[in-house]
Amino acid sequence: MSKAAVLRVEVTECLSAAAEHICTLLERTVAEYERQLCGLKRENERQRRLLDAVLKPEVHLHRTELCDVQQEPEPALIKEELEQLWSSQEREHLHGPIPLKDEEDEEEKTLQSEEHMEARASSWQLSSTHGDRV
Predict the structure, then answer these.
(1) Confidence class of residue 134 from pLDDT cuts 50, 70 and 90?
(2) Where is this region: Disordered (predicted)?
(3) In the predicted structure, residue 18 carries a pLDDT above the cut 90
(4) Phi/psi of residue 64, each to 5°?
(5) What is the C-alpha separation between 20 and 25, in angstroms, rounded?
(6) Dist. CA 89–CA 55, nearest whole Å
(7) Looking at the domain assignment, is residue 1 inside a domain?
(8) Which domain holds residue 28?
């Protein structure tokens, strides 16, 4: 084989390896861009929902039945409740959701406390009853 033919084979191999390397890097770059695009789409949707919540707040009212007397809520009270709802939504938008106390947890703590006090009272009564017998 002539020197020119050997040089041609070496150049062809080198160019093929470079082309494969470039294609591999291109595929990785495209995959990374697609992942970033997916994340940006999710973030965009999240921000769109927040903006909608701020610009178009939804107030869900639940009807409650009153015994015999039905009272109309005072307009000032309604306005105050709406302002509190609006400010809590703004606060949530700026600082994230505010954790609320779980009513069931508080009820459970209250029940446990009452049971503990009853148990102590029972043990006190038992000890005082046994003390009388001794």
Answers:
(1) very low
(2) 88-134
(3) yes
(4) -120, 150
(5) 9
(6) 10
(7) yes
(8) 1-40
DSSP 8-state class, residue 62: -
Distance CA(117)–CA(70), nearest Å, equals 40
Residue 53: is it exposed, middle or buried by C-beta count within 10 angstroms (0-12/13-18/19+)? middle
Is the pLDDT score of 36 beyond 90? yes
Alpha carbon distance 114, 49 (integer Å)? 44
In a domain, 21, yes or no: yes
Residue with the bigger pLDDT between 128 and 85: it is 85
- Whether 98 contacts 92, CB under 8 Å: yes
Report yes or no on 17 lying in a domain: yes
* Spatial contact of 93 and 52, defined as CB atoms under 8 Å apart: no
Q: What is the pLDDT of residues 40-80, one digit of tens each?
A: 999 999 999 999 988 888 777 878 776 655 555 566 677 77
Q: For residue 98, tell me if it sits in a domain.
A: no
Residue written as token pair 């995959």 = 31
Query: Count of domains in the chain?
Result: 1
CA distance 17 to 19: 5
Tokens (6 digits) for 90: 């703004």
